[in-house]
Amino acid sequence: MKIEIRKTCKVCGNPITQKGYRTYCSRHCRDRFHNQKHKIENREWQRRARDKKASIPSPDKVQCLLCGKWYIQLGSHVVQRHGFESCREYRECFDLERKKGIVPAWYRKLKGDIAMENETYKNLKLGKKYWFEKGDPKAGKYKRSHITIERLKLHLKSVNKI
After folding, report:
1. Same domain, yes or no, for 98 and 116?
2. Distance (Å, whole) CA 15 – CA 6
3. How much is the pLDDT for 109?
4. What is the tally of structural domains in the chain?
5. Same domain for 46 and 104?
6. Which CATH number covers residue 62?
7. Most confident region among 47-51, 67-71, 137-141 by mean pLDDT
8. pLDDT of residue 78
9. What domain range includes position 118?
10. What is the per-residue pLDDT across 20-41, written as a single tens digit (0 to 9) for each?
11. Is residue 155 included in any domain, yes or no?
12. Whether residue 62 sits in one domain with residue 44
């Protein structure tokens, strides 16, 4: 076994001043080097574990239209794995409703209940000063999906009947 004795730290380059340290100046640098060494294989292991879970179909998840795997939060998957710039781009590509999130109903309800419980819904009122005004050219960046337009038409018909 070869013992490496250095005068400067292998990670940060600072001088080694503490007794009992041969390669690193501190426990922090030693742990940082060790974590970097195993970072790639750890990442692959985590990816395989996630892919194994995602390959099991479930009514509690949403299926990706590109790879066919199942996820609770599909938006982060499409951005990270399929290279979309945003989830909205994915919805536009597959002609899905643009303003509705791609998460299962139970998860949407759970997040809504959490927002009500910790009162983060009040942040919407605080941010009202940053909302677009009607007719603002910046506000018209995205078009409505045909699903939204059909839903609005049905709503207008039901309102006019009353």
Report:
1. yes
2. 9
3. 92
4. 2
5. no
6. 1.10.10
7. 67-71
8. 92
9. 58-124
10. 788 888 888 888 888 877 887 8
11. no
12. no
Please write the tens of the pLDDT for every residue from 91-132: 888 888 877 778 888 998 999 999 999 988 888 888 888 887
Instruction: Annotate 136-161 with DSSP letters as a single string.
Output: -GGGGSSPPPHHHHHHHHHHHHHHHH
Determine the Cα–Cα distance for residues 102 and 64; give it in Å rounded to an integer. 10
> C-alpha angle 12/18/22, rounded to 5°?
65
| Cut 0.85: pTM above it | no
pLDDT tops 70 at residue 140: no
